[in-house]
Write a structure and sequence with these properties.
This protein has eleven helices and twelve strands. By secondary structure, the chain is an alpha/beta fold. The strands form two sheets. A six-stranded mixed β-sheet has the order 2-1-3-5-6-4, with helices on both faces. Helix 4 packs across helix 10. The chain starts with 19 loop residues before the first strand and ends in a 5-residue tail after the last helix.
Length: 290
């Protein structure tokens, strides 16, 4: 993870001649992302001539989307659902972290090559560190088996969690993730059968509202939390968040995905520009109290 967000370029030098364009690739949900507003605002705050825009791409088009980075001289790209894993074959090289995790959320130029990084993992780690939540010896339950879940499972194991349980609708993917990154795959039936005895729960699925998946919402609504200290939903922007309701009902601390978004964005920003920006610059843009 050492190269995920290092300051390895000449700060501001690349911006002196022309404005740089950055983007994020995702499905139709990309237009609900706060990343364009956040990055564009930070570019302005630090005096860099950059702009950041969202692009919708179907899964079968992700290769063409990556090719457009070259054709249009896009200076860097973020990758979000559902492309974090299937984008990998279309990138020239991967960072050590992205290679291990098997998912990419950031593409940056390294000379004439496109390099894929995973700043989700280190941004998640930065978030836990900032709020003073120590992972060693703790037990965690992660919902999901996609790119975001992979990043979380990797970093929890890397930080020496005592146990990491993975619950996903696709049980085969959960087992594969556990075999690759560490942890134990469990079924939804295991989760709903009795009290969930973990210190930390992370929702890394795309579901945070009842209308997004009534069946899944009904399943997690019956969660019985026992000894849980923090419930972290990597999503944000839901008017009624089912995970927040669960946490409130059990007296558990809740956090949505805005803070992790800010911390991973800070790492991405450094990869793209070589400029280190304080986390508060990103947090304030998202109206997150630092």
């Amino acid at each position: 993870m050492v190269d995920e967000g290092q300051n390895f370029q000449n700060p501001k030098a690349a911006f002196e001649i022309q404005k740089k364009v950055y983007c994020i690739f995702g499905d139709e949900r990309v237009f609900n992302s706060k990343s364009p507003e956040m990055f564009t605002s930070v570019f302005q705050q630090v005096g860099l001539r950059g702009v950041y825009v969202p692009f919708m791409s179907r899964p079968e088009q992700i290769g063409e989307a990556v090719a457009s980075i070259r054709a249009l001289n896009i200076a860097g790209a973020n990758i979000t659902v559902p492309h974090k894993e299937n984008v990998i074959p279309h990138i020239d090289i991967l960072s050590e972290g992205a290679k291990i995790i098997g998912a990419v959320n950031t593409i940056a130029w390294e000379g004439e090559t496109l390099k894929g990084y995973n700043t989700n993992a280190i941004g998640f780690m930065d978030t836990l560190e900032e709020i003073g939540w120590d992972v060693p010896g703790k037990r965690a339950l992660v919902f999901g088996s996609g790119g975001a879940a992979r990043a979380v499972v990797f970093i929890l194991n890397w930080l020496r969690a005592e146990a990491v349980y993975i619950a996903a609708r696709n049980e085969i993917r959960a087992i594969e993730m556990a075999d690759r990154l560490g942890g134990e795959a469990i079924t939804f039936e295991d989760v709903s059968a009795g009290p969930v005895d973990v210190d930390l729960i992370i929702n890394a699925t795309s579901v945070s509202a009842e209308d997004e998946s009534p069946e899944f919402a009904a399943l997690v609504a019956d969660l019985k939390l026992e000894g849980c200290d923090l419930l972290l939903d990597l999503n944000y922007g839901r008017e009624i968040n089912i995970w927040e309701q669960i946490a409130a009902a059990s007296g558990v601390r809740f956090m949505d995905g805005l803070r992790p978004l800010a911390y991973q964005a800070r790492r991405t920003f450094a990869l793209w520009t070589g400029v280190q920006v304080e986390p508060n610059e990103f947090l304030n843009t998202l109206d997150v109290v630092s």
